[in-house]
Amino acid sequence: MLVSSKHLSLASSVFHVMFENNFREGLELQSSDKAEVLLPEHDLEAFTLLMNIIHAKSRQIPRKVTLSLLLKLAILVDKYQLLEAISAWGDIWVAALKQFIPHRFCNDLISWLCITWVFRCPDEFQAVTLFLERESPEPNLSTSYGKEEFEKLPVPDTVLARIKRNRHAAIECLFRALNKIVQNLTKPWPVYCEKADTQCEGMILGTLLRSASQLEIWPIPDSPYHNMSYSLVAHKMRSLTATSYCFRSTRFKMGCNSVDVDRAGILDNLERLLLSVESLQLGLSLEDYPREEGRGDGD
Question: Which end of the chain has fewer CB atoms < 10 Å from its terminal CB, N or C?
C-alpha cells in the first residue's frame, strides 16, 4: 500500500516520531524518500479504511461499518493516536450502530466499552459502563471475553477497576441487607413483629431462609461473587417470599404495596433498598478518565 509519510505524520504522532527520529523507517525515508513500514498484525480492511480517511478519499469511506470492523478501527485509532484525524467518521459510525448496544451482558457489550472509550462518546460510554456494572456475572471482564483478546482492548485499568468495584459494592450491599435481616430475626427479642411474638418472627425467619436457600442466595455466596450479576441478585431478592405467624393465612412478596400482607415490612424495606441502590447506579463519566491513561496488566 502506497501512502504519504507527510499525511501520516500530520495525522498521527506515532508515525510522526517514526518518520522524524532515528528509527529504521525515518532513516530509509531520509536516504531514499520512501520507507517500508511492516504492519503484519493489523487488519488490512481496517487499516486501509483509516488510510483512506487520512488521504481524504471520501468516496471510499463507508458511512456504516460492522461492529467487528468498528472495534478493529478503535484499536488502531488508539494505537496510532489518530482520533483527531478521524473523529468525525468515528461519530458517524457509532451513531449508526449505537441503537444495537446490548442491554445484557455479552462480549459485544465489552467491545462497545472499548469503542466508546476510544471514540470519546460520553453518553454511550456511560450507558455501557452502567450495563456492565449491573449485568457482569464475573468480577473481571476478561473471564468471558478471553484474556488474550481482552488484552488487545485499549481500555484503561482505572475504568476496569471502577466497573469492578461498583459491581462488587452493589451486590455486597444487597447481601449485607439480607444478612442484617436474618441477624435481627435471630435476636432473643422480636424486632419486626408488631405483636412482639417470638413465634411469629421464628416463622418469618424459617420461611425467609427457605426461600433464600431455594433461590441460591443463602448461605450468602463468597465475595467476589462469581457467576452472578447485580441484576440476577436483585431479581432473586425481589422473588423472596416469607410467611408471618400472625398473618399465616397470607404470603407476602417483596414489592407488594399492601401493608396487610407485609405487616412486618421486611421485604418492603428490601425493595426500598434495591430502588435506592439502583438510583445511585449511573455508570461512569468519560470526563473523569483523561485520555492519557493507559493499560497495565489487565483487570
Answer: N
- Phi-psi bin for 165: left (phi > 0), alpha (psi -120 to 50), beta? alpha
> Would the pTM of this model clear 0.90, i.e. be above it?
no
Q: How far is CA 161 from the centre of its chain?
A: 10
Give pLDDT tens digits for 168-227: 999 999 999 999 999 988 988 878 777 777 888 888 899 999 999 999 999 999 999 999
Distance CA(28)–CA(234), nearest Å, equals: 61
b/e map 134-163, b = 16+ CB within 10 Å: bbbbbbbbbeebeeeebeebbbbebbbebb
In angstroms and rounded to an integer, the radius of gyration of the C-alpha atoms of the chain is 27
Please answer whether residues 182 and 282 qualify as being in contact, where contact means their C-beta atoms are separated by less than 8 angstroms: no
State pLDDT tens for residues 70-115: 999 999 999 999 999 999 999 999 999 999 999 999 999 999 999 9
Q: Which residue has the cell 478501527?
A: 73
DSSP string, the chain: ----HHHHHHH-HHHHHHHHSSSHHHHHHHHHS------TTS-HHHHHHHHHHHTT-GGG--S---HHHHHHHHHHHHHHT-HHHHHHHHHHHHHHHGGG--SS-SHHHHHHHHHHHHTT-HHHHHHHHHHHHHH-SSSSTHHHH-HHHHTTS---HHHHHHHHHHHHHHHHHHHHHHHHHHHHHTSSS-SS-TT--HHHHHHHHHHHHHHHHHTT-SSPPPTT-TT--HHHHHHHHHT-EE--STTTT--EETT---TTT-TT-HHHHHHHHHHHHHHH-----GGGS-TT----S--
Q: How far apart are the first and last CA of the chain?
A: 37
